[in-house]
Inverse folding.
């Protein structure tokens, strides 16, 4: 459990401290969201 918390904290820290990583991650999440919305619309 501690390892899981540590690894997630590292991602959060990188997201919080690195604007390039934050933009990249936000872009990837947006692509996933758009893809999922497209799948939902086709149902």
């Amino acid at each position: 459990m501690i390892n899981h918390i540590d690894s997630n904290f590292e991602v959060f820290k990188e997201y919080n401290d690195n604007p390039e990583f934050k933009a990249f991650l936000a872009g990837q999440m947006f692509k996933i969201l758009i893809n999922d919305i497209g799948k939902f619309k086709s149902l």
Q: What stands out?
A: The CA atoms of residues 17 and 34 lie 26 Å apart. The chain is about 90% helix and 0% strand.
